[in-house]
Amino acid sequence: MAKVVCVLYEDPASGYPPPQARAGIPTIERYPDGQSTPTPSSIDFTPGELLGSVSGALGLRSFLEAAGHELVVTSDKDGADSVFERELADADVVISQPFWPAYLTADRISRAPQLKLAITAGIGSDHVDLQAAIDADITVAEVTYCNSISVAEHIVMMVLALVRNYIPSYQVVVDGGWNIADCVSRGYDLEGMQVGTVGAGRIGTAAMKRLKPFDVGLHYFDRHPLDPDVAADLEVTRHDTVESLVEACDVVTINCPLHPETERLFDARLLGRMRRGAYLINTARGKICDEDAVAEACASGQLAGYAGDVWFPQPAPADHPWRSMPHHGMTPHVSGTTLSAQARYAAGVREILECWLSDTPIRDEYLIVAGGSLAGAGAHSYSAGNVTAGSEDAARFRAD
Ligand code: NDP
Known about the structure:
The protein is α/β, with parallel strands linked by helices. About 30% of the residues lie in helices and about 15% in strands. It folds into two domains: about 5-145 and about 335-395, 3-Layer(aba) Sandwich (Rossmann fold); about 150-325, NAD(P)-binding Rossmann-like Domain (Rossmann fold).
């Protein structure tokens, strides 16, 4: 029998379950590339329920316990005294969401001798030291595509929020004011601007498709070229270097994974190559940007705004500079964990567990590491190595 340790974010402050705003969610059976959404044998939850917090348990409890497995669910993930650290010692499987990541560092992996499978309930397995997972022959899998469209929608919202100065204008109303000049003195139309994505995979391409009707010019930088038909439909310009992309764009959105090649890619040097007054949207991973360089660029006016939902580490300490820098539109890490996305990734985690427990192959597109090397989606989009250094700082969130 397996021991499964699942790290999820905390329940709502007002208690669980929260009242539901809508009766349900649309049923989506296929992603835009034709791949089917998750296909577990069955599910024990109603799509649209809150599944990503501790009491939701990703809808896995009855499935695992009825089969005699042990399921431990906790939000206590950081620091040597955490429940996660304790339970890891004899865990066979760890499940974690990128929104509240259980950092699986080399040190933690070395103290988890039974660990065989690390599942990311979402997309982006950079919270796992992939090199250590390769060396320890741990399989790493994520639910590819489960929330890519959720994030693409969020990017459109963030682009418009920054360019049109929505957030300060909303605050004027909340504060009882009506100074229109204050609202519009940083407000522009998106129409006619040049918009570029670093990474033109599932999210980057979906974001470009959604932004094209705004009559913008589109640009991308990626290791592989887009399908020619897709590129022609989007009328998008490919750039050979990230420098060339940022120099050509008014709005840049980051949509590549965090791995050794992209860690701190947006540093002071690259930010300095951007057009003065450009907007930067990062819903990929916080560590792709140098946090102090971004804060300085917002303060100096080099960036007209920065928005997104990803930080490093997570949860971000109270003194993280992005909480207080000017012209930001940051939220906690939420774009990929809408109730709609949760239904897909909870079903995807169950599908992965069903495969692993019955010794049948996990879908290739879900694999990041398998058999001691990068595999599946991981072999295409990641590079081996470790980007978890500094994650222990997440413990400061509670200590502060
Ligand atoms: P995909 O794998 O479909 O796309 C990632 C793209 O990034 C691929 O086209 C890949 O290129 C490209 N890429 C990789 N390395 C580089 C590099 N060094 N320079 C330029 N491009 C690069 O993944 P998704 O689009 O679904 O997701 C992308 C990322 O978004 C995830 O890895 C995750 O970090 C983040 N994410 C955030 C969420 C949130 O809630 N905020 C939710 C979901 C994802 P190629 O494969 O051609 O080599």
